[in-house]
Design a protein that fits this description.
This protein has 297 residues and is of the alpha/beta class. It has 12 helices and 8 strands. Helix 5 links the parallel strand 5 and strand 6. Helix 3 packs across helix 12 and helix 4 crosses helix 5. It is globular, with a radius of gyration of 19 Å.
Length: 297
């Protein structure tokens, strides 16, 4: 009888925890999977606070930078596909994942750059391929402009950065309807149909620091329109076509501003990949990234 009572109590407790913290638990499990796949968790101090990153594997180094309101495990689907051949580093940008960010919610674009700089200073490589998605692509370009001797190749994945309308109500949605629309814009037909209570939990993960970061990025100081022509690093664009935030026309404009002889050749399109093709179409994404890596070897 006691054993049965204990088992029932345990089931109820687990059910309660899952009901109260479903998103956090899901993210925790996904992050644990990074270590299960072969990466080791590290941390380093930066001007923007402690920064968490994961690394593993041997060979040429690839550093992955996630987007706004995401974190390192967003790259989980490509990690296991690339680890047998490359040294992989995935970072939690300040204010994301297990990187708390600066004090008093003072999260800015420079905070993200400081975090990335701190990580690449301690990884065991002189040069690396830098891969950034969305806001992470924007950060990666700014980093590469300041550190051209460190970046061998730059790969932008549905990257932000041009002067454009970045709709706050979808980037930082405050209600279930707008959050559902955000998922649809990001993932297209593959958008998960989540219940309202889960969407509310996801909204609660947004903080004042993220609002400050959004305001700083759209302030005009960091737009890449006039900066891209100065980029002298081999740069490639991997673009999930089913992305309502940054459609393929945005990618073409980005490529043109790189001032190369054949901008279209820089764009590798992934059909139905959405805003995060590395997550939704990992096989196709990995194939393209390997083509880029092998082209440069």
């Amino acid at each position: 009888m006691k054993k049965r009572y204990f088992l029932l109590t345990f089931i109820l407790l687990v059910t309660l925890v899952l009901a109260l913290f479903p998103v956090r638990i899901g993210l925790w499990l996904q992050r644990q999977n990074l270590e299960y796949k072969g990466l080791v968790k590290y941390s380093v101090d930066s001007e923007a606070g402690t920064v968490t990153y994961f690394q593993g594997g041997v060979g040429k180094s690839i550093v992955f930078v996630h987007g706004f309101l995401s974190e390192a495990s967003n790259w989980i689907e490509v990690v296991e596909r690339l680890l047998p051949k490359y040294h992989i580093v995935v970072i939690d940008l300040p204010g994301h994942g297990d990187s708390p960010g600066p004090l008093e919610n003072n999260l800015q674009m420079q905070s993200l750059l400081s975090g990335l700089e701190a990580v690449v200073e301690v990884i065991p490589t002189q040069k690396f391929t830098l891969v950034g998605n969305s806001l992470g692509g924007w950060v990666s370009v700014l980093f590469a402009l300041e550190n051209p001797n460190k970046v061998e190749n730059l790969v932008l994945v549905n990257s932000a950065g041009l002067e454009a309308d970045y709709p706050n109500h979808y980037i930082l949605p405050t209600n279930v309807k707008d959050y559902a629309k955000k998922l649809e814009m990001m993932f297209g037909e593959q958008a998960p149909k989540l219940p309202g209570y889960l969407l509310n939990k996801m909204i609660q993960l947004q903080t004042k620091a993220h609002e400050n970061l959004y305001d700083d990025t759209v302030s005009g100081k960091y737009y890449l329109d006039e900066k891209l022509a100065r980029l002298k690093i081999d740069t490639f664009l991997i673009w999930g076509e089913q992305d309502s935030f940054f459609p393929i026309e945005y990618a073409e404009k980005l490529a043109e501003k790189l001032k190369t002889d054949d901008p279209v050749s820089l764009i590798y399109k992934i059909d139905g990949g959405g805003h995060t093709p590395h997550y939704t179409k990992p096989d196709e994404f990995t194939k393209v990234l390997l083509q880029i890596m092998e082209k440069e070897e």
